[in-house]
Design brief:
heterodimer; A: about 325 residues; alpha/beta; four-stranded parallel beta sheet; 12 helices; globular; B: five-stranded parallel beta sheet; 15 helices
């Protein structure tokens, strides 16, 4: 899942960040430490602005996104990089241009980092094989969304001080979720215990082989958990009968106070957004400032993406200034 | 009937007798494995065995010494796609024939999923004409089972069969409507036509791109459950029992399918099946990091199914090995996995991969070659596929021990989509003869 190691950079010996699956616990830890330091910097910190000076970052989104592309764009800007965001709608595809044509065209403009989102699993991996710079996977199909898992981990770590030994429930549409897969890899690597809770139509086959416990009953699955991670019901990917109605879904799998009461008293509520209020999460629960860390997740997103851009560009050789690394 | 524009056959040289001597004759049709020779006159085998020697050959015969190498019937590949007409940028009958000859395939049957689709007499005649013009290996075709491969209306089965269609199939698609399939089998029974099915329940295959399981979950690729295959076979077996038709399940890939076919054969139903090399030599792990050359239809399965297919070949439940040759250009494969076309080229890897069970000790040489020669010939009703007096002199000379690595760059096929590149194998085709005519000789071998 990851490009070839670069011995010159022991900090993060991968050319690309394509997924969590191939990262070691130590590498994840280092990324989180770096992100944590960025989270504490003022947003106009001058030293940070030298990190990507002279570097070009292209956000290439084949699938619409507001928060992720904005978050990456801000992260690159706070590090002083030149960043452009391209939303490649189906128009280029209609003209007959393929994914790799687009990638090669942009590659010719010599970006240092390409941040790529695509609706097909494996598409970012394919693209990474054909470009010269580094590639960050900003979400590919149902496969992985590594920066989301990192920002979730950073949010948890800052609240609870650790990941090791925590009990985390990931609830809802696991089948279609790249967020779930990346989080399962990350949390299990870092020593957390993970439960998945969903109706069986929304659980992919053999998910237990990824080291998680499977529940179909929120009342049992939420018992004593430290973290409740809700997933968006991906209504747009529902071709066919996965759940009969959103009403039934909310009744049995939506997070409300009654179900939340089964978790630990101080359990945190997370959601990668965007939320379907009243479908997978009760509006009041989502907005509960004592329990919900959903806004914090968004905030940590920028810090995590700064850390990823920083770590990957340390591997690059080129004209950009190499002095003044913090 | 030869079109007038074609050059006449080279005069007389054809008709000089050919004596292949000092060979190890391996003929699965008669279970014969002995030292001897073969004498060919006018494209037909006229004598076989120990009495065919250099000394006994006719005075005017061309004599070739086989140096003890295996001489076997030419291979009969019952499932290929040649992409002509319609997709000549992927393969043509010319390049496909070159690949076949190099792979030891002397007869092949192409699927009707061309553009236009082979669902009328003109389509069958087109393939026959192009085969004559190319004049390298024997090329046959199946007719579509339903018009336009749409699964609704039957083709003119009897007319197509009269024109030379060897069977009927909707190619890469199963016939979804069970009533249509029932009528197709029932009608086919009237003429004893062979009906060939791609056994996969379409509702379960729809949207899927690989085998369903832990790996598809990890890769985030929609999976096709393995039982989609046996569901379709079992549905069809009821119809076969009801109609008495001849039914052939293509490229089976699961343990459950092997067992279903085994039971059907024990029951006495007229059922046969084949598999393709990837299903006994590779498993789903070949996909690794989204390698589209490992995307097939049916998909590569788990290791337990792979072993079951190998076992089904060894115990004879699986009748044949077909290459399932499916050429695709780079643009069809260098795309995200779910969007990539399924299939691999197979003509030039058919023999060495089919020989792997022999080298592993799982199958005898006769049994392995039977799957490539007389079994498909019998199913298709062809006279070739045997080293018998009076049979067409379609033969291959094989070095069954020679080790080498598969090098796709050297393939004659126009497309290069093979997952076997670099695989170490044993067994190579030295020479190929069609009607006694040399159509291929390995570099360094005398043609």
């Amino acid at each position: 899942m990851i490009g070839s190691p670069n011995a010159a950079n022991a900090f993060f010996p991968h050319r690309h960040l394509l997924g969590i699956e191939a990262l070691s616990a130590a590498e994840i830890e280092r990324l989180l430490d770096l992100a944590n330091s960025y989270a504490d910097l003022p947003k106009d910190d001058e030293r940070a602005r030298r990190v990507l000076r002279g570097r070009t970052v292209i956000n290439l989104f084949f699938e619409t996104s507001t928060r992720t592309s904005t978050s990456f764009e801000l992260a690159a800007k706070r590090l002083g990089g030149d960043v452009i965001t391209m939303s490649v709608s189906t128009s280029a595809i209609k003209k007959g241009e393929t994914l790799l044509d687009t990638a090669m065209t942009l590659n010719a403009m010599k970006p240092d980092v390409m941040v790529v989102r695509h609706s097909e699993s494996g598409a970012v991996n394919l693209l990474s094989q054909k470009v010269d710079g580094s590639v960050i996977n900003a979400g590919d199909g149902r496969h992985e969304h590594p920066t989301q898992a990192l920002l979730d981990a950073l949010t948890i770590r800052r609240r609870l001080g650790k990941l090791d030994g925590l009990l985390v429930a990931i609830c809802g549409d696991i089948l279609h979720s790249r967020v779930a897969r990346s989080n399962i890899y990350l949390l299990t690597k870092m020593g957390a215990r993970v439960r998945v809770i969903a109706p069986l139509t929304l659980l992919p086959s053999n998910i237990d082989r990824m080291g998680v416990e499977v529940f179909t009953d929120m009342k049992k699955g939420l018992k004593d958990v430290d973290i409740v991670m809700m997933l968006r019901l991906q209504l747009e990917r529902m071709q066919g009968a996965y759940v009969p109605s959103t009403r039934e879904y909310f009744r049995f799998f939506g997070l409300d106070y009654a179900k939340l009461a089964l978790a630990k008293p101080d359990a945190l509520i997370m959601h990668p957004g965007p939320m379907n209020r009243g479908v997978e999460i009760d509006s009041e629960v989502a907005d509960d400032i004592n329990r919900s860390v959903i806004r914090e997740q968004v905030e940590m997103g920028v810090a995590v993406r700064m850390a990823c851009l920083d770590a990957l560009t340390r591997n690059l050789t080129g004209n950009a200034p190499q002095e003044s690394r913090s | 009937m030869t079109p007038p524009s074609l050059p006449a056959r080279p005069p007389k040289k054809q008709d000089r007798p050919l004596a292949l001597v000092n060979a190890r004759l391996v003929d699965p049709a008669t279970n014969r494995d002995e030292t001897g020779g073969i004498l060919v006159e006018n494209g037909v085998i006229v004598a076989t065995g120990a009495q065919v020697t250099r000394a006994n050959a006719p005075d005017d015969a061309e004599i070739q010494d086989c140096h003890g190498q295996v001489l076997a019937p030419g291979f009969i590949d019952m499932r290929v796609q040649l992409r002509e007409p319609g997709e000549e940028h992927k393969e043509t009958i010319e390049t496909g024939s070159l690949a076949a000859a190099a792979g030891g395939v002397t007869s092949m049957v192409c699927l009707p999923n061309t553009e236009p689709i082979i669902d009328d007499v003109a389509g069958v005649q087109f393939i026959a004409r192009r085969a004559r013009e190319t004049r390298r290996v024997k090329i046959y075709c199946y007719g579509a089972l339903t018009q336009g491969l749409e699964g609704k209306d039957l083709v003119e089965m009897a007319l197509l069969a009269d024109s030379g269609a060897l069977g009927f199939t909707d190619g890469l698609h199963a016939v979804r409507d069970v009533q249509v399939m029932r009528r197709a089998l029932t009608y086919a029974r009237s003429f004893d036509a062979l009906v060939i099915q791609h056994p996969e329940e379409p509702g379960l295959a729809n949207g899927g791109a690989m085998n369903n399981g832990e790996l598809s979950t990890r890769l985030g690729i929609p999976g096709i459950p393995a039982y989609a295959e046996v569901m379709m076979i079992e549905r069809d077996l009821h119809l076969v029992r009801g109609s008495g038709a001849r039914y052939h399940a293509s490229h089976i890939s699961t343990a459950a399918a092997v067992e279903a076919i085994r039971k059907a054969k024990q029951e006495g139903l007229r059922v046969t099946c084949d598999t393709a090399p990837p299903y006994f030599s590779l498993n789903e792990n070949e996909i690794g990091d989204y390698r589209t050359f490992a995307k097939l239809s049916p998909p590569l399965r788990g290791e337990a199914d792979r072993r079951a297919i190998a076992a089904g070949l060894a115990d004879g439940v699986i009748d044949c090995i077909a290459s399932d040759h499916a050429p695709h250009d780079v643009e069809s494969k260098r795309v995200p996995f779910a969007q990539a076309e399924p299939g691999i080229i197979g003509l030039e890897t058919l023999f060495p991969i089919a020989l792997e069970p022999y080298h592993k000790g799982a199958m005898s040489l006769l049994a392995a070659l039977r799957c490539l020669t007389c079994r498909p010939a019998d199913i298709l009703g062809l006279p070739q596929g045997r080293l018998a007096k009076g049979a067409p002199a379609d033969m291959v000379l094989l070095d069954i021990e020679r080790p080498y690595r598969i090098d796709v760059a050297k393939f004659r096929s126009k497309s290069k989509n093979s997952p076997y590149d670099g695989r170490p194998v044993q067994g190579i085709v030295l020479k190929t003869f069609v009607d006694g005519r040399p159509v291929f000789a390995l570099e360094g071998e005398r043609a």
